[in-house]
Amino acid sequence: MSILAKQRGLSALALAAVLGLGPAPAVLAQEKVSTVVNTMQIFSSLDPAKVTDYTGYMAVVNMYDGLTTVAPSGEIVPHLAKSWEISEDGLTYTFHLRDDVTFQDGSALSAADAVWSIQRLIKINKGPSNLLVDLIDPANVTAPDATTVEIKLNRPFSPFLASTPILLVLNQKLVEANAAAEDALGEAYVGEHSVGSGPYALVSYNRSADMVIERNPDYFLGWDKGTPIDEVRFVQTSDDATVRALAEKGELGLSSHGLGNDTFESIGNMPGYKLLQTRTAGGFQIKLNTKVYPTDDVHVRRAIAYATDYETIQQIIYPGVPMHGPLSDTFETAFNTEIPTGVYDLEKAKEELALSKYAGEDITLVNSYVASLAFEQEVALLMQANLEQIGITLDIRPEPWNRIVELASNPDTTPASTQVNVSPSYPSPDAMFFNQYHSKASGTWWSMEWLQDPEIDALIDQSRAQTDPAEINATYKELQQSIYDLQPAVWAVAPMRRYAANACLQGYEFVPMQSWDLNFWNFTWECPSN
């Protein structure tokens, strides 16, 4: 939800009343551009060492800076580090930092802060740390001087550079000043405060409802691209009617990407609004828990895949293009073109079911999805109707997102099938393979398949140890085929990433890394003259 109060004449007090955020400074009505953004899910943590989902990454990409960042092309480009070198053996990465970066409290950012932040990430061992644990010993992250960070890996790791945008830097002194004896890494404080150098600083945070960030005027990259957005107000709701009503009042600046088709079309047709639409590097899938009844049988999993009406999902419910297994074709050099797209064939579904150990039994399949997401409800109802025709009863159980995350921590509590959107958390095929299918990554919403297959683990490890791009891509293609053969998910659609946006919001570009496209430093507020 987005307004330019000065142009629209809506007072800050009225906006606050509409959103339930409390009074806002009157100056907003005269001077500030205030943009309110709808999110589907709560911000479960603001700690860069703990985030795992799109809202968490949306928060940290605005409040923190990494050693590098990602261009829309997927290329890793300089950010805090202006340059870097990699040793011939591929084990030592040396980053040369800028010397003009300050934290939001005005103190200078140094290599020591970066070293401490990376060590902290490894020690906390949550969120994105699964990339680094066992790969980097904290003692092997050092600062030879105030602008140099040296990282020595325990072994070659081909996706390491692609992962460096998530090496976000925290203000060590500020965190330690607010840490406690029983919380030496300041997890409680960082989880509810902004302690970075990013373009926006935290104003307020209500975990279950909203978050407000404001522009950092001293941001090291400056604000010279146009009219900047001074304040961003994130409001959590997955109710389409609420979002539609906000648009009708002229208060919606940017929607979530999980609205129903009709809602997108309705808002896009309203005066003063537009639809943003791009391809993505991920996909919408139905994850199948390979450790519980009845999806512990590969023939049941294949039957579910054949009973999926891909065309209806891709053309009507959640528009996008077909998927060829577990990797998006946007990763062109790594993509296995021999893997077919999903086929809707109820007769083949029955044949597969007849081959399963549950043949002849009454089968009930639990299906969970994020409650209140209209398109996921539609997918569930479509699947229910189709599966009934092959003898499977679909037990639909919508859950709030935080409950799905909780259930995913154990194979026995993970639903037999769960609908999720998955996109890379760093711009490499490894982000799709390791996070979902490697045994070491088990226990998160990413890995609700609980695949834990030694052959798959070995192939992922092999790709990570290789240094020749051609060899890495060959392994990735073999991985795709091996995963496809096990059918741990229904790869339903590579959806178009869509947002309903105020016509004044400019600068959006898709970035192939989770929520990096929602760094509001890249946006400006320029209203069309007509």
Automatic annotation (TrEMBL):
Gene3D superfamilies reported in the protein's UniProt record: Dipeptide-binding Protein, Domain 1 (3.90.76.10), Dipeptide-binding Protein, Domain 3 (3.10.105.10), Periplasmic binding protein-like II (3.40.190.10)
Pfam entry (one): SBP_bac_5
Keywords attached to this entry: Signal, Transport
Ranges where the Solute-binding protein family domain occurs: 75-442
Subcellular compartments: Periplasm
Domain of life of the native organism: Bacteria
Signal peptide positions (record): 1-29
Keyword hit for Transport: yes
Homology family: Belongs to the bacterial solute-binding protein 5 family.
Name under which the protein is recorded: ABC transporter substrate-binding protein
Species, as recorded: Salipiger mangrovisoli
